[in-house]
Structure formats: structure tokens, C-alpha cells
């Protein structure tokens, strides 16, 4: 689990469903006829066998289970007090058209209300659930997670108005952030959540501004790998595998907000670190920090060359998805409030003033 480390290619883990090919049912009638014949044969055999009384069957059943140790009656009576209960699956967050209850919530319930700050204050706006804190959500500040921040910036580029809501992977319908809950029409109807894999199509449908990527050639596909591999690997290493940064950044952003139980926190921290290791070991079992950082340094150099003297990567006046992707890393790397203890990536970035200016330009205009 790396809630926050969105997995490469697949993005997030989701259950796969089995499908039945239409051709499998073509011989259904013949199969049913054969089954009927077999059932008739079974019935004939049963008629030839001597019948068993209920008492005999119970004795045989008890005999087959006699090797199991008997449960002490006091223990059995105790567990009988707590019958097995199956709860329904978690529902999606309340629709954006729900009535606000934050202002009238009692002090006892205010904690849960604050965790979903701003969720129902303005029913006509979309909500983007991201890794952030309550104060940052109120002020629309950037998320602390690159994947969440990328979509946060991209939706702003497309002119889509929304509110950011603090959340975590466990609250997501598909187990990954970000996800978006569109503004509802009102009443009891609730819109469906938009998963990360569907945010692009949703943005194309609801955006006020034209999508500049429609005119993009395949040039950026080569540079895209620099973000998804070189820079992302360096991010995973410095944030999750460096012990000082893990305590000041990862634990603060992903572990502590999820639970107050120390045992659960320890488990989540271990899972985050292991997930980062798995990602970095997808090619080689040995993790070489020097190689990882050197590749990130070269990636920033290539991105700086691509940007040149332009304001944005494709259109000089309009940022696109690639700008959002670059910004999602450059901003967090240069953000001193994030809690960096060891940050060689900032030194690599500062070697390229145009990338630093690109980050500041987006921050000033959209955040």
C-alpha cells in the first residue's frame, strides 16, 4: 500500500472481474439434458441404496468432526454474545448537493466534520479529494502528493472550479487518490465518483478552456518518461527511504492523519517504505542512491532544455497536462514548508532557473 505513491502504469490496484463469453452458453440445452439424465441415474442409485435415518446421519457427521477439540462452554457462551455481522460496503462521500451541517455540528461531532472540511458548504461546486490538511484545503493550496497536485493544477488550467477536500486512500471508492465528486443536481440523487483513470475524460467534458494537448505531437511522450521514471524514482527514494525525510514528510502527510493508533501507524509506515522499495526494485534488486539521483539530475537538464525561454512547455500562453506534471514535482521539491531534511533534488532544480520560474509562474497564477 502506498496510498500516496500512485503505482506506475496501472496507477492503482483494483479488483478485476471475470466475464462470461456469449459462446459458452450455446450448448446449454444439451448440457441440461445431460444433467437431467445424470440426476435420474443418481435417483435410481439412491433408490437401490438402503436409506439412512436422521439419527444415523447426525452420528456420522459428529464422528467425522470428533478430532476437533471441543470449545469450552464458557468461551462459547462469550462468543455467542458477539454474533458475526457483515456490514454493507462503504458508500461514496455525501453528494455536493447535501445540506451543510458543519455550522450546526455539536462539539462531539466536530472532529469528523473537520476531517471533511468544506464538503457540503457550497453545493454547486465539484470536490476533489486529495492528500492535504484542513487549513490548506480551505485556502486551496497545493496538495502534498505529486499525483494529487498534478490533477489539482490541471483542472485549474482547464478552468474547472472545485474545492479540495482532505482525504486518504481508505476513503476512496477505488482505493486511490485523487478522486472527484461532481456537483449534484440536488435532492437525493448522488453523482458517481470520478476515479483518477477517468479524470482526463471528465475534464474534457466539463472544461471551460480548450485542451491544448489535442494539438500536441508525440514529442512529449519521450520526455514524459523522465517524469514517470527518473524524477519519480528520486522522489520515492528521498521522501520514503531517507529516514529523516520520512519522519518529517511522509509520516506527517500520510501516516499520522490516517489513525491515532500507534500499532496501525507503525504498520502503515512499514507498508509505505516497502511499497517504495518495490517500485525502485522493479528493474534491479539493488537500490543505488547515486544512480537514482544522477538520473534525476539529467532529467531536469533535459526538461530545462525542452522548456527553453518559453513560459510553458507547449503553448507560451497556456499550460497543459505536461506543465501540471512537471509542476507537481518541482513545486514540492522547492517547497520549504514541506519539511525537507535532506533535499539534493532542490539543488538540481536550482541549476535551471527557467524550471524554477516555471514553478513560480504557475504557483502565482493558479494558487
UniProtKB/TrEMBL annotation:
Residues 296-362 form the Metaxin glutathione S-transferase domain. Residues 30-48 have a biased composition (Acidic residues). It comes from the Eukaryota. One of its GO terms (cellular component) is SAM complex. Residues 90-115 have a biased composition (Low complexity). GO terms for biological process: mitochondrion organization. Residues 1-69, 90-124 are annotated as: Disordered. CDD domains: GST_C_Metaxin (cd03193). It holds the Pfam family GST_N_4. Residues 146-245 form the Thioredoxin-like fold domain. This is Mitochondrial outer membrane protein.
Amino acid at each position: 500500500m502506498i496510498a500516496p505513491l500512485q503505482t506506475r502504469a496501472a496507477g492503482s490496484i483494483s479488483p478485476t472481474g471475470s466475464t462470461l463469453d456469449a459462446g459458452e452458453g450455446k450448448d446449454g440445452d444439451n448440457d441440461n439434458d445431460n444433467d437431467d439424465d445424470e440426476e435420474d441415474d443418481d435417483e435410481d442409485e439412491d433408490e437401490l441404496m438402503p436409506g439412512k435415518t436422521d439419527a444415523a446421519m447426525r452420528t456420522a457427521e459428529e464422528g467425522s468432526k470428533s478430532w476437533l477439540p471441543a470449545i469450552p462452554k464458557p468461551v462459547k457462551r462469550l462468543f455467542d454474545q458477539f454474533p458475526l455481522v457483515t456490514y454493507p460496503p462503504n458508500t461514496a462521500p455525501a453528494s455536493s448537493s447535501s445540506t451543510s451541517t458543519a455550522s450546526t455540528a455539536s462539539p462531539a461531532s466536530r472532529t469528523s466534520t473537520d476531517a471533511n472540511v468544506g464538503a457540503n458548504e457550497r453545493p454547486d461546486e465539484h470536490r476533489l479529494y486529495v492528500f492535504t490538511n484542513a487549513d490548506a484545503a480551505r485556502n486551496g493550496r497545493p496538495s502534498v502528493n505529486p499525483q494529487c497536485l498534478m490533477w489539482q493544477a490541471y483542472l485549474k488550467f482547464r478552468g474547472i472550479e472545485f474545492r479540495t477536500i482532505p482525504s486518504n486512500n481508505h476513503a476512496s471508492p477505488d482505493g486511490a487518490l485523487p478522486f472527484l465528486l461532481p456537483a449534484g443536481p440536488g435532492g437525493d440523487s448522488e453523482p458517481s465518483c470520478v476515479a483518477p483513470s477517468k479524470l482526463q475524460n471528465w475534464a474534457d467534458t466539463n472544461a471551460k478552456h480548450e485542451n491544448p494537448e489535442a494539438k500536441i505531437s508525440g514529442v512529449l511522450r519521450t520526455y514524459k518518461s523522465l517524469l514517470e521514471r527518473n524524477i519519480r524514482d528520486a522522489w520515492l527514494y528521498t521522501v520514503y527511504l531517507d529516514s529523516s525525510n520520512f519522519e518529517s514528510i511522509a509520516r506527517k502527510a500520510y501516516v499520522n492523519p490516517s489513525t491515532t493508533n500507534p500499532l496501525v501507524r507503525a504498520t502503515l509506515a512499514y507498508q509505505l517504505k516497502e511499497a517504495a522499495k518495490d517500485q525502485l526494485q522493479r528493474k534491479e534488486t539493488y537500490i543505488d542512491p547515486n544512480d537514482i539521483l544522477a538520473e534525476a539530475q539529467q532529467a531536469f537538464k533535459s526538461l530545462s532544455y525542452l522548456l527553453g525561454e518559453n513560459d510553458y512547455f507547449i503553448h507560451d500562453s497556456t499550460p497543459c497536462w505536461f506543465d501540471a506534471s512537471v509542476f507537481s514535482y518541482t513545486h514540492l521539491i522547492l517547497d520549504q514548508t514541506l519539511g525537507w531534511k535532506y533535499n539534493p533534488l532542490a539543488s538540481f532544480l536550482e541549476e535551471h532557473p527557467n524550471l524554477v520560474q516555471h514553478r513560480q509562474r504557475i504557483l502565482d497564477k493558479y494558487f
